[in-house]
Amino acid sequence: MSAPEPRPGILDIAPYKGGDSSIPGVDQPIRLASNENPMGPSPKAIAAYEGVARCLHHYPESGTDLTSTLARIHGLDPARIVLGNGSDELIGLLTKAYAGPGDEVLFSRHGFAMYPLAAMAAGATPIAAPEQDYRTDVDAMLGAVTERTKIVFLANPNNPTGSYLTNEETRRLHAGLPEHVLFVVDAAYAEYVSRNDYASGSELAREHPNTVMMRTFSKIYGLAGLRIGWCYASEVTADVLHRTRGPFNVNAAAHAAASAALEDVAHVDRARTHNDIWLPWFTEQAQLLGLKVLPSVGNFVLVGFPEETGKDAVAAEEHLKKDGIIPRGVAGYGLPTYIRITIGLEEEMRAVIDSLRTFVAI
Length: 362
Known about the structure:
By secondary structure, the chain is an alpha/beta fold. It is 37% helix and 16% strand.
């Protein structure tokens, strides 16, 4: 007997593989593969999470409290905020709602891996525009737009490269798109950026009905395990998402913890300050070892290695793991000579530099 056949193209999708979280034989590895906040979540978020333990027999509330808090803090219209089971769910919902067979979904060459996966799951064709110096190239993106383009994704800042487009560049990209094309700005790492020329995309989403800004609680808020993200869109697009999302797509613990995390501004400030200190420190130390490090405004950095066997990125990753450190290989992003390293705690970053120092001396 044969099993039911999935829709054409589904079996062509290579499943997304997250960063490793364990090393055989190592009890407590240094986890620097998934851009997690090394300081963890706010104590207020933990308390709120624990507070729902005796209410697990109830369905989650509608999310009104959380959307109201997001609206107040960010100066947004709560009716245009949609919550998701991580921003990954929102990527999938938007893609399935606005693209399908015969359509194209556009993103930059080294953009987030979920964009092509979501496009293929919807039956659409993923299109990767070339980049310049590991940055999204606005002209190349606009040059790749065709009559079949339905969605343009911009990760800003971009994962895994750590690069970003300025507000002016982002607006130029949007201005060059046809009005019927949905422009999605994925600002998962926005809270880490302190550049004066950067904007998260909320203003664009407020001004233009074809623009969506996405955010997440998985990064600076330290709630990756609860899977909660959100987006700001036009009332029409928000209505589409509400029609297609699951009725209880965000769990009660995530609602409670995210609301509390938003109110703990001091914890977010500490996490940002920590990154502002140890990202440049690690970058400088790695460069002093003769390694190439790409500029990053996120809480992670790409470190480049020679192509020589035994000195390459694969060997470097294996060496770090032998020392109990888990980085992220990014060959799947078309970056086979790099590994991505999350900025961890001080002792973790010093351990990485010590390990790399040994590796380059081999």
